[in-house]
Amino acid sequence: MTPVLALSGVTRRFGDIEVLHGVDLPLQAGEVHALIGENGAGKSTIMKILGGFLQPTTGQVLLDGKPATHLSGPAAEAAGIVVIHQEFNLVPDLSVAANIFLGREITRGPRLDHRAMAEAAAALLARLDTPIRPTALIRDLSVPDRQMVEIAKALSRQARVFIMDEPSAALTHREVESLYAQVDRLRAEGVALLFCSHRLDEVARLADRITVLRDGSVVARAVRGDMTEDGMATAMVGRELADIFPAKAAGFGDELLRVEHLNVPGTVPVHDATVTLRHGEVLGIAGLVGSGRTELAEAIAGLRRSEGRISVRRAPVQIRTPADAAQAGIAYLTEDRKEAGLLLDKPLTQNLTLSALGSFGFRIDGAREAAAMADATREFDIRAASPDMPAGALSGGNQQKLLLAKTMLTEPRIVIIDEPTRGIDVGTKQQIYRFVRALAAGGRGVVVISSELPEVMGLADRVLVMRQGRIAGEVAGPQITEENIVRLAMGVAGAAGGAAQGDTQQGDTQKEPA
Amino acid sequence: MTRRIDFHLLGPLVALVGLFILGALLNPAFLAPANLSNVLARSAFIGLIAVGMTFVITQGGLDLSVGSMAAFLAGAMIMVMNWLAPITGENWSTILIGMAAALLGGVLAGWVNGALVTKARIEAFIVTLGTMGIFRSLVTWLADGGTLSLDSGLRGLYRPVYFSGIGWITWPIIIFAVVAILGEWLMRHTRFGRHVEAIGSNDRVARYSAVDVERVRLQTYVLLGALVGLATILYVPRLGSASGSTGVLWELEAIAAVIIGGTALKGGRGRVWGTVVGVLILSLIDNILNLADLVSPYLNGAIQGIIIVLAVVLQREKRPADA
Q1: Which residues of A touch B209 (CB under 8 A)?
Q2: Partner of A81 for a Cys bridge, out of A76, A356, B177, B312, CB 3.0 to 4.6 A?
Q3: DSSP readout, B54-86?
Q4: Which residue among A326, A340, A341 sits closest to B210, beta carbon to beta carbon?
Q5: pLDDT band at A34 (very low <50, low <70, confident <90, very high)
Q6: How far from the centroid of its chain's Cα atoms is residue A194's Cα?
């Protein structure tokens, strides 16, 4: 049978980096297809190409077996391809019904037929078995409710192909059941479905066909029943570590940071987190996107309100603002370099000294600033045409080095780095890894948060794994394996040895201080 | 630092020099010290306020209340002095207390604006639109719909603060010059100025860089309030009175001067010297139209309007060169 929609030998490059290497992916009518892989494996890129938001560099998108050369977003939608993105695409100030019919409003003559749209919306929502009122404003809805509206909106289009990115990530248990029922119904109606999910139980429950992606290539394919959840996890990982990581620490010093029973409220809350860090140690924090890693780090850095006890060098500290954290010697490098890390329209020098201006005198000493910039350029190998160029004109790798230099200017004892190498080429990655290790070797404590498992494993002396806002477990030394981490992150039962389970205290697997 | 000649940056300065030459050519009276003194002294009120406004706009805020605030402070200052005169006498200590009241009132009014923006988290436009109405209404109420006049004895004593100085360079000119230089220094060479620019450029980055964003924002409103108080102190001796129509549209003139001077309305880039140039351009246009009969002085507003729009167009042209 000809697939409704298929990728044939698709590659995709971003600049010099090829992120997809010749991927084949056929979607059959009446079949649910799961696409699984680690963060950064290329799932999102594939979804964007299928939805017409990105074009393949080479290879083809086949629609009903015929090449669809310029399948743009609107054209894809006209062809019956509907994508539900992870980020909501809803207008907060419009009603549920108005959102569902946005751009395809039902009219009677020149005026909107509010009643017809409300009735149609009500029927769609009833089909989803949800009590949301069609007249409610999106802004008044909870996140799961908004997700249901997204699904209703997608259902309202006569879809032949349905692509869902983590559809259940924001849903509660009851809503997940109703989503599954809809998936079953759509399959019975002959719709081709593709979804990405980190919930392997969900994949096992829903998928007729599974494609496993790793580093931009398909590494395994299976049909329903052929692959266990364990098999999926093993297929997703099992990559050998390239030798780009510096040697790990031989031993650590005394306790540097202790965070106890930290609770962080918010849309992605953190519950009862306990973290310790010693001088000279690199601590990795792994977990899925949305597991609370960044929220935990931002709370320690005074950027979020939190409750709990934090002590630095065994002395309790109160951290309510970023200035408090800086005072305590804690520095945080954001994952959001462009929006929260650097002033893109300001010169490099002004960016470098922004956090540490207090040490440049009441009248800012321009000569000392220039000297600091020269030092930083040398020490962190920042490749820039001039220190007066705007930070936004630097490459991603050099921006990251500048951010690192900026942070180090505050002379922190504890450095928390969120996604240290996001969007950075391999060569620069290696440099950054060496900087991180050098910081620890200098007696500081470093926390590395990363979605890239090889990075966490290669860098960290000890790894905390977060899952749904809690610290799901800890692995150290030889226990640091992809399988152990992935199992903890996904909550696959009966994983890794005893050391990896719920052990947030200093366990027996930890290296002894030298 | 490499020094390149940037014509977009120098644009306002070139325009100012051009206006000056034009004024001299059109009417020899333009260059008379009495005329120049008059132009500069009248620029001083808007100028002082515009220097403060530069900081507020650079951090990404706005203050529409300054004109009304000046009127209110003038009214309050006159009332304080009139009330004190029988007690402390018609002497300098009464005037000094009046000055202190104006300055303190300005600081307080600025603090209220700033606190409503940063602590109550209401948009600056809304907050200052509200306080603009409040101050305007308060001064009208204090004057009972008429005019508040300073007692004649005090007025005679106070007059020289506006009208005398060092030769034809009167006190308002001197104080404006000092504040402008200090303001430029504050913006360019201190942590406060750097933080103001950083917040206007991207307040999230500033927050993540351990800058106390709310405090710095509040400080810019307080600074502006204090400068409005200072402007009032120099304005009251000129007429010796205040009414509901005092300081009308000063806020827009101040904002226009800031924009003409090259400060970005969206924040992030502040030029105090540019603001000074902007103020002078606006005053010179007014003065030249009054001296020459080329164009009716009634078209003053139209020409100022054209200059403002032109200045913003020039700023936009600068963008691609920035990136």
Answers
A1: 322, 354-355, 406
A2: A76
A3: HHHHHTT---S-HHHHHHHHHHHHHHHHHHHHH
A4: A326
A5: very high
A6: 20
Chain B: give the shortest CA distance to residue A142, in Å. Answer: 24
Secondary-structure class of domain A5-236 per CATH: alpha beta
CB contact under 8 A, A354 and B211: yes
Asked if the Cβ–Cβ distance from B194 to A357 is below 8 Å, we say yes
Fold (topology level) of A255-500 = Rossmann fold (3.40.50)
Question: What are the backbone dihedrals phi and psi of residue B28, each rounded to the nearest 5 degrees, phi first?
Answer: -60, -25
Question: What are the pLDDT digits (tens) for B68-111?
Answer: 999 999 999 999 999 999 999 889 999 999 999 999 999 999 99
SS3 category, A213: strand
DSSP classification of residue B22: H
Q: Domain residue spans in chain A?
A: 5-236, 255-500
Q: Which residue of A has its CA nearest to B195?
A: A354
The owner of tokens 């150290």 is A476
Is A279 at the interface with chain B, CB within 8 A?
no
Report CB contact under 8 Å: B205, A345: no
Q: Report d(CA A474, CA A276) in Å as an integer.
A: 11
**Which tokens in the block code for residue A206?**
């829903």
What six digits make up the tokens of B172? 């308002």
- Tell if the CB–CB gap between B268 and A322 is shorter than 8 Å: no
**H-assigned helices in A58-191:** 73-78, 96-100, 114-127, 143-156, 173-188
**A127 exposed, middle or buried (CB, 10 Å; 0-12, 13-18, 19+)?**
middle
Measure in Å the smallest separation between the Cα of B55 and chain A Cα atoms: 17
A323 touches chain B (CB under 8 A): yes
